[in-house]
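Salicylaldehyde dehydrogenase
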Amino acid sequence: MVQLLLIDGAWQQSATLGTYETHNPFTGEVASQAAAATPGDVLRAVGAAERAFPAWAALPPNERRRILWAAAERIEARADEIFQAITAEMGGPAAWGHYNTSGLAEKFRYAAGAVHEVLTGEVLPSEKPNRTSMAIRKPVGVVACMIPWNAPALLVGTSVPNALAAGNTVVMKASEQTPRTHGLIAECLTETGLPDGTVNLITNAPEDGPDVVDALIAHPAVRLVHFTGSTRVGRIIAQKAAAALKRTILELGGKAPILVLADADLDRAVEAAAFGSFANSGQGCVITERIIVDRTIADEFIQRLVARATAFSCGDPRDQKTVLGPVVGQDSIKKLSGLVADAVAAGATLVTGGTADGPCFAPTVLADVTSDMRAWREESFGPLVTVVAVDGPEQTLRMANDTDYGLAASIFTSNVPLALDLAKRLDVGMCHINGTTLDDEPQAPFGGVKDSGYGRSGGRTGLLEFTETQWITIEGP
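Structure:
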């Protein structure tokens, strides 16, 4: 079947009737076929969202809550279909599919519970007698939500539920890699009684991406752009949106460190590092990419981490026993191999991994890494983690901040006051003490600083991103 566009409540072909294919990253077989949208299709989708906005914004909050809660139930009811699409399109094993769908359902439930909170305003004191002054929250209008492929269901939840809860309408641009996954989620939304045009879905061929994105950002009705993806593309999105004076929320790349202090619980630290480094074959923005460990425990830590890494089963994501599936695309294999070769040539030690078996890349640990190596500087977006030994908490902090990125970090220590002090001095948007970097909850503000982007998704902070503040005064009589 062909994944169609959703425009104004109707599933339809693109204006040119063009389609494109995606391929299973493990087998190479066709995974899905989808409509190849044109800029004209984008204009129609935004127009539908613009027309639907007044009625959706005026809908009583309890009705929006009912629809958002129903969306969570429909996602859970169709979880098996979504699992299968995730596995076919981006190679995620069953555990990754479950994590995605359950996480997305919970984000819709959180948004459903926040429909009253998000538009709550305040009464302000006024310098003028007999004047009432207030600040109210309003939806922004049409929101463009650009969704990535690496956590294709979960990352719908960083924008769409909260945008809808605040009374906005949405044009969702699916990832070119996972159009069927995103199409299934859009189907779930249409099954809730959501008014036509409130959510629209665009799928496009990779070669048409720039033109489709240009049309989406340039449309005057689009007032906010939410983008999750690479820092390179995020810069382009930000520049185009800024030229049109449009707000953006950017959740971009990361190079997350784990700081392992001398008094850390090694069992917990190793488990968090192994999970954080290799889950989803390392394809995630909050994946652990750097481990900064106190020199007094470094050898033992590395030995334990290697034991965990070599125990992971890699291969066919359709096999229930598989822990790590493929990485997406031969370009990823080439980049990972290049990072390893560069580091080893510069003096790093390849402790384990570093090789590819077809589309799968073995869990890889590089030790004796220095800060001038590409493996330390560049986001690998794969199952590759670097380890550096340091002396004391202050050097650990300096090394952790030695990066252009600033998304997530973890600290392992039994000294919680010290950990809190270090956390406040880390240049990151999120820090987890004695927990993994790979963490997300609907009620928490998710986002980064520096080259990891700006704005937040989740929690009250994330909800308010999808609103405008308006000042209103009333005088007399």
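The first helix runs from residue 39 to 58.
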